[in-house]
Fold this protein.
Amino acid sequence: MSLTFAYGALLTGVIVWLLLVSRLRARPWEASVATASSGMTFPETVAPAKVGLWVFLAVITSLFGLFISAYHMRMGHGPQTVSDWRPFPEPLILWINTAVLILSSVAMQWAKVSLARGDAAHTRTGLLLGGAFAIAFLVGQFLAWRLIKVSGYLVPSNPAVAFFYVLTGVHALHLLGGVYVWGRTAARMRKAHELIDVRLSIELATVYFHYLLIVWLVLFALLLTHSIDSQMIFERLC
Amino acid sequence: MAYVAIADSDHEHALHDPQTFIRKYIWSQDHKVIALQYAFVAIAIGLVALGMSVLMRLQLGFPNTFSFIAPQDYYQYITMHGMIMVIYLLTALFLGGFGNLLIPLMCGSRDMVFPYMNMLSFWVYLLAVLVLVAGMFVPGGPTGAGWTLYPPQAISAGTPGATWGIICMLASLAIFIVAFTMGGLNYITTVLQARCRGMTLMRMPLSVWGIFCASILGLLAFPALFVSAIMMTLDSVVGTSFFMPAVASMGEPGKHVGGSPLLFQHLFWFFGHPEVYIVALPAFGIVSDLLSTHARHNIFGYRMMVWAILAIACLSFVVWAHHMYVSGMNPYFGFFFATTTLIIAVPTAIKVYNWVLTLWRGDIHLTVPMLFAIGFIFTFINGGLTGLFLGNVTVDVPLSGTYFVVAHFHMVMGVSPILVIFGAIYHWYPKITGRMLNETLGKIHFWATFIGTYSIYLPMHYLGILGVPRRYYGYSNGIEFIPPSAHTANEWITISALFVASVQMVFLFNLAWSYFKGKPAGSNPWRATTLEWQTPDTPAKHGNWGPKLPVVYRWAYDYSVPGAPEDFIPQNVPPDDRIPAGHEAAKA
């Protein structure tokens, strides 16, 4: 509960502060404001899609933040002696998947940088690699789910397992959405006469892939911290 | 924040007016049509919920009379009535309806920045409503777990709709949240990026401020409901134990172990309390504009009003556990949440004072929208004051299970925003249709609704003080402490409820009749300053503004400006020309 509270207070505070506070000092009822040219010149331009994406990322942050709060609260529910939270070993393939997702993000960044340089060939290569690695990550996650099932750990009533599937599943669904957008961008890239036609799409897709990498790293750290392997390591260290 | 991107590049693009009926009215990407689509569906499903409340009242007022209302039916009516009213009517109508209609028109935009996604938002919302309605026809009927859907009873055998009904409800909520996210992204991005030249944040009408902040609240709070919907669905279908504790039934242990019902309550109310303000903030904004326009007086303390909206929005995230005092919590948490709850009364009170001071020395026109706006102030003060009682742990604990709570939240979250919705419809109907709503019918509608709702909810406070428990199907057997006067009050409340429900038919008739026979409205019948009344056409055509977007030179509340030839100066009138368009006679 305290985590959720801290998250809510911090997030809303930061958003309000960053977006609004500096602009809310005006006194619009004063005659001088009506006659002055304030608000009539705008030096910078930001594409609405870019703002839309950042707002969407705030929504996803809220979603995963709440999932993580629920994870902590459920783990701490009830006396530890009778807790039904039974940690299990995370499949090793998750490390490989993590590396693949990092490569995906790196490739997308390469595409974005190449785009800024006007290098069409490298942009295309980076874009294709970025998507291919993302798809490979999704396949890897599917294999991880299969491995847990085959190993006999898939007991729905164990909240540790249930949270593993929910967190990784929701993350995978978001990445699947990213892959869909990537697919559309790649198709447009094939038809595009000029790089400028796909510039915004590639920039936004790159931001989204980076963001989902960060989310995954947080989730992976969370899952890893509470796995049975890490608990054994902690016990040995102590 | 650069909102010129669209405004400046606008003139380079041709307006692609949709030509076919399907593109114009069904798969429409025009924000005004989408607003009406939202409004029609929300009002239609709201009428279903109204019908359910009538059935509940019949049972409570005249128990053992209507044999077709079984106990399980009663609980299903309670659940569906609550959820429909809060989510599918109020949220959808304020944000999907008024948000869509007002944001582009008041900000001087051609449309939402993502029109296709806006269209999808409506159709996904419709799908959510259809799944909800489908839940009424599945085996076992809709869920009867109460609108808060608390586990374990929501998915435990014995609760109405514990198998299919609850799944339909959870699926519908998840779909609704997807729809809302698409809409909310549009509202926020449009406000930030697509305002016309000169429309600074501090020149925006308070309606836009309210809708904008409510959209931010929704986008951050609805994920909590989404998380709980997913996890409860898994508890029900797959057998996980996120929320479900170990339950034994008929001596047999169930499939669940060790889940936390309290976790669900935290998640639900982390959404649930901001939801109050998701509904309230647009109402606050709209009522500010109604009061200012119809009192011919600038809004008192505009900057304070904006700050109050922001303060309420932030505080609404740190008060959720005041809904859970009776669930048990650490006393320090109880103290914290009681304190934050009382603190939120400060910005709210500032708004109330400012509304009253806006009326002070105003040239008050008692038009129908104004009557509803004043009715809102009365009702909101009443509902708000009882909120101060319930915000305190020691007072809340004995009152929590009684009709006092029902009276409180219906006054503050039911009647108050509904009064604003009515006022807003009377106010903007002329812009939408080009015709005025009939004023006599409107006044009958107002007085009957206003007096009728007080007649319902004031006695409910009395019932609550008496200790009459809520959520009960009947009180006839074994509840000795309830005096006969409570039964009489229940009969009176039921008769009042029937009266109020039937009066709404007058409103619906007025909507339909005035569309064909109403007095032509002209472009600006209320002589208002905000941009939506300055469109070249009424009703506004596709693209809203003709070939050229408006330019804004002043705030939205230049009413009764000393020395001005008219008692209002629209936002798009340049500083050296203070006569509104269409009023050139005054210039001569």
